[in-house]
Specification:
alpha/beta, 7-stranded parallel beta sheet, globular, binds adenosine-5'-diphosphate, binds magnesium ion
Length: 737
């Protein structure tokens, strides 16, 4: 008998085990059992052979009339001729000559499969079958066979679905008792089967309901393990000591607020309060602040930073790119005014200093910054990854603010945290709004604050579609519009999905949007290699073309990630200084660029971008008092899913709604990270949006368990499963979402 940890070869033999390992990376009995069916088919009522239509899934009751083995192209082919009295047809098996022994002439059986044709004759290739031994009640056998619910597995390489089914069957037959990590009382609470029952039912269900319940239990398991891991992490954080940071009534924060040129929005007030409360606790704050571009996160972060400076602490702001770090430095210095000039003649007496630390500083400048950081003069330190390097020492790091969480891993967060005496408070900011369950799943160890309101005085952004297939002349109109905007003294962005034109491989069939959409509908995905960006507009082609064509006379400049950082910098600042009218760019402008004078954006091949990404991109215009216009160019056909997606973007400015649409359409792997596609993954079934209810339920259970038993001492098997998940995710998904 086998247990879950047993190697597959113990049960299936070397050959099959090796093939499974090669094809799917499976090693253990559990790996195979967790290769769940994608769906099920029911073998229907019996059909007469004479009535069969090609393409139908059918079951026939027939008698073998002749069997022949032949060889073709190095394969053995077993041809079995069967008849049911109404007509004859052939069944074909490749490389399974051994079936000749049981499929003898005169034997009766039921055969199920999809009707194909070969040289004009209808046939079933590799049908499922069940033979009816002489003397058995045919009616009974038929009822049992034809009503059966058959699994369809994700197949691969040498492993068609039926072969996986066969291997799973062998494994299930030899499966020993297995220990269930899900505590019995929880399984009972939800009416779930045991783990063993669930494996049996998901692979060999007696009814659709049984399969559904098994799948629900296994999905719940995944959600619960994940929530346990996150709840454990929260509780570990809670048990750490941190220095409480209190705000005084007449300190830096109130002086700063007295000088602010605007009133906080209600959302800002509430979140300020939450953060203030968090940081007064004797354990580290661990908070995610989400809000759209321009919703006013920076001011909140700045207030939090000033509050730790009041008690002699320092704050670090970690930005994903050099450009963003510089922009933060400018914004924050400006907001602080003379409060940022402590120790200088212009200084207000009260205040602090802001230091910028990035990779491109000269050695002298770097040295100077490092010394102000280590002696504590710089209360606010803004930088990129350079902040994480060895030589950076803080006098008293009290707060770490991370901008755009998804670009930082936990290790990086930790590296910075190690620079503090006690664990610092942590505030993570993201402009990609995410639905609650996703936040719970991906950022489950963070408390979440959400800014839903934009400060008033913001101009609206209008978004329109340009379907170039149907209305090519609209594109000319778009270029004309840019010219008009520039004539009014404004500026524009043109965004393209590629940097350079791809080398076209003429031998390859061109993949159209229709292909992509079809694949998506079928639950498939066309790989990025296959896509290879064929036909997409590139910055390097478009910029010169427009400069000498439709936008002749305007000052255009290309901007993309392959340029040197000096060139990028120079281009950005020239754009900010209005020396450039139109920036032709890749998505490098997605984060950070803040030019209030830019009023228009044209996004080429916009169907190539995700919904949230488009929303982020267009957030670059309409930032000042000028209304923004965003044109989404696409050659997707009119009623395609791609166009629907673009219409959704054009139809709303609600980032939450859009991020839902986005997540709905993306494959989940993107949401939960790569780990999900790996065979070892513990997250195979869970879908963050579809399984919202299960996730909520699992979270409740996990919090309950961890509150009583944070180390899971009373649940050794459960603790083991959680530790496996932890190993998996440490390399991967949770923190890099
Ligand atoms: P985010 O960091 O969320 O993208 P910012 O904090 O940069 O947003 O705010 C965007 C702009 O709005 C900035 O110019 C900022 O000074 C301004 N702003 C922030 N809060 C308010 C407010 N309550 N009222 C008016 N303007 C505000
Ligand atoms: Mg900002």
């Amino acid at each position: 008998m086998a247990i879950l940890e047993d190697p597959l070869k113990k049960v299936l033999g070397d050959r099959t085990a090796e093939a499974l390992s090669k094809t799917f990376g499976m090693k253990s009995v559990e790996d195979l059992l967790r290769h769940y069916p994608r769906r099920y088919v029911t073998r229907g009522e019996l059909s007469d052979i004479s009535q069969l239509i090609e393409g139908d899934e059918v079951t026939i009751l027939a008698e073998v009339s002749a069997v022949k083995v032949r060889r073709a192209n190095g394969r053995t082919i077993l041809d079995v001729l069967v008849t049911d009295g109404s007509a004859k047809m052939s069944l074909t098996f490749f490389n399974q000559a051994w079936r000749e022994k049981e499929l003898r002439a005169g034997v009766k059986g039921m055969f199920a499969g999809k009707v194909g044709s070969f040289k004009g004759t209808r046939q079933l290739s590799h049908p499922d079958y069940q033979l009816i031994p002489d003397g058995d009640d045919v009616d009974n056998a038929v009822d049992e066979f034809a009503g059966k619910y058959l699994p369809v597995y994700p197949a691969g390489g040498k492993f068609p679905s039926w072969k996986i089914e066969q291997s799973v069957g062998i494994v299930l037959d030899s499966l020993d008792e297995i220990e269930d990590y899900l505590p019995r009382e929880i399984a009972d609470e939800f009416g779930y089967p045991t783990l063993r029952e669930a494996f049996l039912a998901i692979h060999k269900p007696k009814s659709p309901e049984e399969a559904d319940l098994a799948r629900e239990r296994l999905t719940f398991d995944e959600a619960m393990l994940l929530q346990l891991l996150l709840a454990q992490r929260r509780s570990e954080l809670r048990s750490l000591a941190a220095t409480p940071r209190k705000i005084s009534t007449d300190g830096l924060v109130s002086i700063f607020e007295g000088k602010l040129p605007f009133k906080y929005t209600e959302g800002q007030i509430e979140i300020n309060r939450e953060i203030e409360n968090d940081m007064q606790q004797p354990h580290p704050m661990h908070r995610l602040l989400q809000g759209e571009v321009g919703s006013g996160k920076t001011v909140i972060a700045l207030r939090a930073m000033l509050s730790v400076i009041e008690s002699g602490g320092q704050a670090a702001l970690l930005a994903p790119t050099e450009v963003l770090a510089q922009q933060h430095f400018k914004t924050i210095s400006k907001l602080l005014g003379d409060l940022a000039m402590a120790g200088t003649l212009e200084g207000s007496g009260e205040g602090t200093q802001v230091a910028l630390l990035t990779g491109s500083l000269t050695n002298a400048a770097k040295k100077e910054a490092l010394s102000r950081i280590s002696n504590g003069e710089a209360g606010i330190v803004i930088g990129t990854h350079a902040l994480l390097s060895e030589g950076v020492e803080f006098a008293d790091l009290a707060l770490v603010v991370v901008d755009e969480q998804h670009r930082f891993g936990v290790e990086q967060r930790d590296a910075l945290r190690m620079k503090a005496k006690l664990p610092p408070h942590l505030l993570v900011m993201t402009a990609t709004p995410i639905p609650r369950t996703v936040a719970m799943t991906i950022f489950g160890d963070l408390d979440v604050s959400t800014l839903r309101q934009l400060p008033s005085g913001r101009s609206a952004i209008k978004t329109h579609l340009i379907p170039v297939l149907e209305k090519p002349h609209y594109l000319d109109r778009a270029w004309q519009r840019i010219t008009e905007e520039v004539a009014k003294g404004h500026q524009a962005y043109i965004v393209a999905p590629r940097i350079t034109a791809p080398e076209v491989d003429e031998t390859k069939a061109k993949i159209t949007q229709a292909d992509i959409d079809m694949a998506r509908l079928m639950g498939d995905e066309i790989s990025s290699e296959e896509l290879n960006g064929e036909g997409m507009v590139s910055v390097e082609e478009l910029a010169p073309k427009l400069a000498t064509g439709a936008l002749k006379g305007l000052k255009l400049a290309p901007l993309h990630g392959k340029q040197s950082s000096e060139l990028k910098e120079a281009t950005m600042s020239a754009f900010a200084l209005k020396e450039i009218d139109v920036l032709v760019s890749t998505t490098v402008i997605e984060v950070g660029v803040d030019v209030p004078n830019a009023s228009m954006m044209v996004i080429m091949d916009s169907d190539r971008f995700g919904v949230s990404q488009l929303h982020q991109l267009r957030g670059r215009v309409g930032r000042g008092s000028v209304p923004g216009l965003c044109l989404l160019v696409s050659s997707a056909p009119e009623a395609s899913p791609a166009m629907e997606r673009l219409n959704a973007v054009a139809g709303t400015l609600d980032g939450f709604e859009l991020s839902r649409i986005d997540l709905d359409q993306r494959r989940e792997g993107d949401v939960l990270g790569r780990a999900q596609s790996g065979t070892k993954s513990h997250l195979r079934l869970l879908r963050v949006l579809r399984d919202e209810d299960l996730i909520e339920k699992a979270r409740g259970v996990a919090l309950r368990i961890i509150a009583d038993d944070p180390k899971l001492v009373g649940y050794p098997t459960l603790a083991h499963e959680v530790s496996l998940l932890k190993q998996e995710e440490s390399s991967d998904f949770l923190d890099k979402g």
